[in-house]
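subagent[fold] <- orchestrator: predict structure for attached chain, return tokens only, no commentary.
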Amino acid sequence: SENSDNVNSLSYDILAKYGVVEDLELRLNTSYKSLDIHPSRVGFSPLTFGLKYRIYDGNTILPAIGVIAQMQFAELAASDFKLINNAPAFILIIEKDLSKDISNSANILVQWDGIVDKPYYSYSYSFGYSLSENSNVFVEMYGDIYADAVPTHKLDFGATYNINDNWCIDISAGKTLTNKRYNSDYFYGIGSSFRF
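subagent[fold] -> orchestrator:
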């Protein structure tokens, strides 16, 4: 959920993952969105299909490296959220455990929004600490960089808790640091993930 002086929004993200082989994963995701603007916009965002592949497992010195290639399908969405063109994205994933309890990861993305022809770039960096066998806290910095617009940078904090081996819940809250004209000042989220 996000809120500011002008806009309230809710987003329910849905991600399904299926391991084909040990290092290859199929991904299917969408979001159910509600934007409190005039006129209001409600419905599912474009369906995204992707593949995730782990290139390198990492070792005591070098990080693990993976990639995701995915495509948003312009017409497979509610009428309020359809795109003009299909929108591809390519993501580089870098992960490294600094100790038994401390982890960090970074993502670098190049992606298209399905409306303009030029790509834009995104990044994220996450630092996590394990409080116990089942609970973790994290801080994350992420943002979008455009060729001809003000970059957006955001910071959030959160926690995860493993109820069991197949069920995890999480909570987070954060703040937009730049480009607040088009982004909510504060946002928060609650999530749950299941493994079948």
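orchestrator: received. Logging for downstream: The chain has a mean pLDDT of 90. The chain is about 0% helix and 65% strand.
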